[in-house]
Write a structure and sequence with these properties.
The structure holds two protein chains of two kinds. By secondary structure, chain A is of the alpha/beta class. Helices cover about 20% and strands about 35% of the residues of chain A. Chain A has seven helices and 28 strands. In chain A, the strands form seven sheets. In chain A, strands 1, 2, 5, 6, 7, 8 and 20 form a seven-stranded mixed sheet that branches. Chain A has a five-stranded parallel sheet with strand order 10-18-12-13-14. By secondary structure, chain B is α+β, with helices and mostly antiparallel strands. Chain B contains twelve helices and 23 strands. Chain B has helices spanning about 15-20, 60-80, 95-110, 120-130, 150-160, 210-215, 285-300, 350-370, 400-410, 425-435, 440-450, 460-475, and strands spanning about 5-10, 30, 50, 85, 90-95, 120, 135-140, 145, 165, 170-175, 185-190, 190-205, 225-235, 245, 260, 270, 275, 310-320, 330-335, 340-345, 415-420, 425, 490-495. In chain B, strands 1, 2, 9, 10, 11, 12, 19 and 20 form an eight-stranded mixed sheet that branches. In chain B, strands 13, 15, 16, 17 and 18 form a five-stranded antiparallel sheet that branches. In chain B, a hairpin with a 4-residue loop joins strand 21 (about 415-420) and strand 22. The chains are: A alpha/beta, B alpha+beta. At the A-B interface, helix 3 and strand 11 of A face helix 7, strand 18, helix 9, helix 12 and strand 23 of B. Strand 11 (about 155) of chain A pairs antiparallel with strand 23 of chain B.
């Protein structure tokens, strides 16, 4: 086998892919290829025309397209090559390189690279996942698909809307549909707390007088042809429907914002080990997966709350991929990272001894006054008190670890 | 006056199979369908199993047509480019009593002419499906799976290509006879009401066949809709199931039990439930059954995750036995004494899909006795090659790269993906749109090329198909339909006269 064609190939041109490609170039990769399936870079940011991006990374509030633009400009200035309208069919690890099977208009080809960054983002959960009872009329869309229709394709999906699920995209779309003249009757959430960020609850629902119905489920949809209404019912604390307390809301549109799933079909087919909680690959502090030379970041690794953190994580993955392309990789014994029951997950799942690593984690349910602790070999390396922590907000903490001792991330409620 | 020799009511699998059979002749054939497309009812909503014929009483029409249809299926699917696999089936006994039942099934199957039946012990069962539970199984090698939607569509498209006319969105509301003996069918259409004249009527209206039969005074039977709900599972699990595995059916059951079914495309189905309902149009999924199917699925496939349940759907069996009787009634194919030129087909539930080609031959012979006709000399059992039409049993992504490379030279759009989950190319979507011979609907496109059927359920491809329809076919988004004129997809454009500024 002759020299691989590329040092680093980044799969996905959204915020994660852009930042990873830029980081790889900056870290000295000789050749970086950015592969994007859409006809432009930016990923889902392109349809996120609302503000709220960039506060953390650029110190100012930007819209999605503006945030993407800053990275795209950097990409176009350097020597990163991008390949648009291109789908990746398969990645497979060979002895000294990785094969990537690509397809685009008129072409199917295999390219070779030393390292790969997985930055495919995530997809939305659908009606099938939430067991929506009733017929299958027109007018039921995922919130993200509706966002694309409204913001990029000039199409109003409907005029009387109910939104199932209080994820951020659902909240954003509640405001967006209202601004376009639609009546948003309610946002329902099966949990007793909201799935989206606090700022979105204020700016997208409260400011528009849209009711947020917690512990409430859309139990039935009506309409043989076009949606005619939905039945919603409250849930008791055990999460079962209080059947006789239902309410019918006439509407022609139901938007679903019921969760995001990291997009990892490629990763699975490549034999990469996955974490069933995050839905993304198992990674170390370099964002490297179980397959040497394959790195993962952004929403393909785990679903993030804000794009800024996606970029920050992708920076690590891109840098690591460039280093791998240049120097290869010395396998070493890694230290496992575990977490307490109050946390849903903690990333990365393993770290190299003595590394300085940013850990990302989320609580499993809302907590009041509580303390976050990071221990290694039973010794406390970090602690911080919080007044409130909610699952929708990711916590990121950078820690200098010692060379030995298992790492634990804990969170305990304090009276 | 619009006069036809034969009018078939209903463009499901039976109506289309008969239309195709009659398209071999010089008869002027019309198919009227109340929905916007072929395969919009029960024919698209079932397990897609080609049955062997073991379950039906010897001498019954169900036994005769299932065995005959099963034998015809291979050649027919090759001719029509429809996915079909003879994967075999195990009917599994878990108790001593069921083992006796298994031997009875084998004898019954052999009487019906089913070939290759074998009783397997547990070791032999393990060789077919590792990890399988049960004491004994009846192996029927001729049982297979088919894409029932593609099959129904292909029969219809082939009939149409050979001269059969189709009228969609045309619901028969009454039937009368003029003094010359010609039948007059009143149709409810988007224009209001229309009338057609026909010498012969074949009632293939499935769930509504009893209502049509009553229009000519035949009220012997009532169709009782019996709902079967399913879940479609992610293709990730396709290798978990090598062949069909059914429990031994209960004596009075009107179904064959909830089980896993492989599909030709690799999604496993879980279902169907068995519940009599009132409304023959109610294809609703219900919370109770969905919960039950999820639990059964998890028991049958321990590696199932919640994200693997990608879609639920329901089909309705047109049963002739009322709920109090249950079980199965034989197919009814009836010519009325007072209306010898009207043929009613009633209660064509399972194994109707398997039986459909054999039923079509049978009805063809009935028609031969009623109206003289000649055979066309140039009738081609396969589709003629049409430029720009992709017609293969599977989407391109199911084939080796060489197949795609060969097509890419003719049309680069075979490399442009519209659907990420099923990897359906723009050329395939384009071809599906061109193949539709009624109103263009999103469901019609989906049923022809599998867009919107994957794990994202159209989240990715739907906006892209909308753009294609706008830009390449001139269909404004505010006129686009989901499954018919009453199901507009959108309220309209937001700004200006429509169309995106720059997508």
């Amino acid at each position: 086998m002759c020299k691989p064609q590329w040092d680093v190939v980044v799969l996905g041109g959204g915020p994660a892919g852009l930042a990873a490609a830029l980081a790889a170039e900056k870290a000295g990769a000789d050749s970086v290829l950015l592969v994007e399936r859409d006809n432009r870079l930016g990923g889902i940011l392109v349809q996120c025309i609302h503000p709220g991006f960039g506060l953390h990374r650029f110190g100012k509030e930007l819209t999605g397209p503006e945030y993407a633009h800053l990275d795209i400009q950097q990409v176009s200035k350097g020597k990163i090559q991008s390949m648009l309208n291109t789908f990746v069919l398969q990645i497979s690890s060979q002895e000294n390189h990785i094969d990537i099977r690509l397809m685009r208009t008129g072409i199917v080809e295999t390219i070779t690279t030393r390292s790969v960054v997985l930055a495919m983002g995530c997809r939305e959960r659908t009606a099938g996942a939430i067991s929506l009872a009733g017929p299958r009329p027109a007018g039921i869309y995922t919130a993200g698909a509706a966002q694309r229709l409204v913001n990029l394709q000039n199409i109003l999906p409907g005029k009387n809307v109910v939104i199932a699920g209080s994820g951020d995209i659902g909240l954003i779309m509640a405001r967006r549909m209202s601004l376009e003249g639609a009546k948003v009757h309610a946002v329902t959430e099966i949990l007793p707390y909201a799935g989206g960020l606090a700022r979105n609850l204020n700016q997208c629902l409260a400011d528009f007088n849209i009711p947020l119905l917690l512990s409430t489920k859309v139990v039935h949809v009506y309409g043989q042809h076009r949606l005619e209404g939905v039945r919603i019912a409250p849930l008791n604390p055990q999460g079962t429907v209080i059947a006789d307390a239902y309410q019918d809301i006439p509407c022609d549109t139901l938007l679903l914002s019921v969760g995001l799933i990291p997009e990892n079909e490629l990763s699975r087919r490549a034999g990469i080990l996955m974490d069933s909680t995050t839905g993304g690959p198992l990674v170390d502090e370099l964002c490297m997966t179980s397959v040497p030379g394959v790195f993962a970041c952004g929403n393909a690794l785990h679903v993030h709350d804000v794009a800024d953190y996606v970029s920050e994580e992708a920076d690590v993955a891109g840098k690591s991929a460039a280093r791998f392309a240049r120097c290869g990789h010395d396998p070493q014994e890694l230290i496992p990272v575990s977490h307490g029951p109050q946390l849903r997950y903690a990333l990365p799942q393993k770290i190299a001894p003595g590394s300085t690593t940013t850990l990302s984690f989320r609580v499993a349910k809302p907590l009041g006054r509580c303390q976050v602790e990071i221990l290694q070999g039973g010794k406390r390396l970090y602690h911080k008190n919080h007044l409130r922590l909610i699952p929708s907000e990711m916590i990121r903490v950078s820690v200098e670890f010692h060379t030995a001792g298992a790492v634990e991330v804990l969170c305990e409620e304090r009276p | 006056m619009e006069t036809h020799d034969v009018t078939i009511i209903g463009a499901g699998v039976v109506g289309n199979a008969i239309a195709r059979e009659l398209s071999k002749t010089t008869l002027r054939v019309l198919v009227v369908e109340k929905e916007a497309d072929v395969a919009f009812g029960t024919s698209a909503r079932n397990s897609g199993v080609v049955h062997s014929g073991i379950h039906y009483a010897p001498g019954s029409l169900r036994a005769k047509f299932a065995v005959q249809g099963n034998r015809m299926m291979q050649e027919l699917c090759e001719n029509l480019s429809v996915a079909y696999k003879r994967i075999g089936k195990l009917t599994v006994a878990s108790t001593e009593h069921e083992m006796d039942k298994l031997h009875e099934l084998k004898i019954q199957g052999e009487k019906n002419g089913v070939e290759g039946l074998q009783i397997l012990n547990h070791t032999q069962m393990e060789q077919k499906q590792p990890g399988i539970a049960g004491l004994q199984a009846l192996f029927s090698p001729t049982t297979g799976i088919i894409n029932p939607i593609a099959f129904t569509i292909a029969l219809g498209e082939h009939a149409h290509a050979n001269g059969a006319q189709y009228r969609f969105l045309s619901e028969a509301t009454s039937i009368s006879q003029n003094p010359d003996g010609l039948y007059i069918i009143n149709l409810k259409t988007p224009k209001g009401s229309e009338t057609i004249h026909t010498r012969l009527i074949i009632n293939c209206a499935g769930l509504h066949a009893d209502a049509i039969a009553r229009m000519t005074g035949y009220d012997e039977f009532t169709v009782y809709p019996c709902r079967g709900e399913y879940y479609v599972l992610d293709k990730r699990l396709s290798e978990e199931l090598n062949l069909l595995i059914y429990p031994v059916p209960g004596a009075h059951s009107g179904g064959l039990g909830i089980h896993l079914t492989n599909t030709t495309e690799g999604n496993i189905l879980i279902g169907p439930s068995n519940e009599y309902i009132e409304d023959p149009q109610d294809f609703s999924s219900t919370a109770e059954i969905m919960e039950l199917l999820k639990a059964e699925g998890q028991a049958l496939l321990p590696s199932l995750q919640t994200s693997d349940f990608i879609r639920s759907f329901a089909g309705l069996r047109p049963k002739l036995n009322p709920p109090s009787v249950g079980g199965f009634h034989d197919f009814v194919i009836h010519r009325q004494t007072i209306h010898p030129h009207v043929i009613h087909l009633l209660g064509i539930e399972s194994p109707g899909l398997t039986a459909s080609p054999a039923i079509a031959l049978h009805v063809f012979e009935m028609v031969r006795d009623l109206i003289p006709f000649q055979m066309k000399m140039d009738w081609n059992p396969s589709f003629e090659q049409q430029n720009g039409i992709y017609r293969q049993p599977y989407p391109l992504s199911y084939y080796e790269d060489e197949v795609r490379l060969a097509l890419l030279h003719k049309d680069p759009d075979f490399g442009t993906l519209i659907c990420r989950c099923e990897e359906i190319s723009k050329a395939e979507v384009h071809s599906a749109i061109l193949r539709i011979f009624g109103p263009i609907t999103l469901v019609g496109i989906k049923q022809r090329c599998r867009t919107m059927t994957g794990r994202c359920q159209g989240g990715f491809c739907l906006p892209r198909i909308i753009s294609m329809l706008e830009q390449e076919f001139g269909h404004r988004a505010d006129t686009q339909l989901y499954k018919g004129p009453q199901s507009p997809l959108f309220s309209g454009y937001l700004r200006g006269d429509g169309g995106p500024a720059n997508v």
